[in-house]
Amino acid sequence: MKLHKSIVAFFLFSICYTILLSGYAVAHQVTFYVHNKCPFPIWPATAPNTGHPIIADGGFYLPCGETQRIIAPWDWNGRIWARTGCNFASNWQPACETGDCDGRLACNGLIGTPPATLVQVSLQGDKKKPDFYDVSLVDGYNLPVSVTNRQMSTKCTIGGCSKDLKSSCPIELQVVNKNGEVVACKSACLAFNLDSFCCRNEYGTPEKCKPNVYSRMFKDACPSYYSYAFDSPPPLVNCVSKEYVITFCPSSWGSEEHTSSL
């Protein structure tokens, strides 16, 4: 009888401990809802910063109009972007027209090939402290994206672009596919690799590295994004939330770009 009671007690303890661990895990997670409002499929990708785990296998397919739920540790740091024009069934290298990661569907920690619009995330690991995130065009642009919390709070929201950067991209910054279509727009740093555009070496301070004609063009089209390394005031958002929505081609996307991408 004593043995039977011991087994029952151990069983109940195991259940309670499992429930406790489950609750702890849920409490220490953040959910990203990645939504595709583009009129074409995309292949979102993730890459962690050093010391952080890979989430969502590093990449997945997302058809037009669908949403993918991603779970991340509550202290996760990394980047999220979308790849376009992918064909993983072929032996082409790269497999994607923009944002490619060595021809793989699951990037598995690899960083995408620029130019690609980057969502940069720094979760703080304590829901009493705000998370930090921004959208960067420092390496260039391939798609507009918005970021907000699930409640769509104004102070937590990064809006999309008001103009079509691909249709207005200067020829010297254009990335063109095999059909002659502009699929992305490089930053001046990526295109020319000059210290003055990349804000490095003698131009490595905000006082020395100023906006240029290209970064101003990016800023005019996408005012909520980083247009170059020392963009000021920094378009960095901080928000306390356990759920965020990342929307590629949000409703604020320019109608011209919708038309050009069909």
UniProtKB/TrEMBL annotation:
<protein>
    <recommendedName>
        <fullName>Thaumatin-like protein</fullName>
    </recommendedName>
</protein>
<comment type="similarity">
    <text>Belongs to the thaumatin family.</text>
</comment>
<dbReference type="InterPro" id="IPR001938">
    <property type="entry name" value="Thaumatin"/>
</dbReference>
<feature type="disulfide bond">
    <location>
        <begin position="38"/>
        <end position="249"/>
    </location>
</feature>
<feature type="disulfide bond">
    <location>
        <begin position="169"/>
        <end position="185"/>
    </location>
</feature>
<feature type="disulfide bond">
    <location>
        <begin position="156"/>
        <end position="239"/>
    </location>
</feature>
<feature type="disulfide bond">
    <location>
        <begin position="199"/>
        <end position="209"/>
    </location>
</feature>
<keyword id="KW-0964">Secreted</keyword>
<keyword id="KW-1015">Disulfide bond</keyword>
<dbReference type="Pfam" id="PF00314">
    <property type="entry name" value="Thaumatin"/>
</dbReference>
<feature type="disulfide bond">
    <location>
        <begin position="189"/>
        <end position="198"/>
    </location>
</feature>
<feature type="disulfide bond">
    <location>
        <begin position="86"/>
        <end position="96"/>
    </location>
</feature>
<feature type="disulfide bond">
    <location>
        <begin position="101"/>
        <end position="107"/>
    </location>
</feature>
<dbReference type="GO" id="GO:0005576">
    <property type="term" value="C:extracellular region"/>
</dbReference>
<feature type="disulfide bond">
    <location>
        <begin position="161"/>
        <end position="222"/>
    </location>
</feature>
<dbReference type="InterPro" id="IPR037176">
    <property type="entry name" value="Osmotin/thaumatin-like_sf"/>
</dbReference>
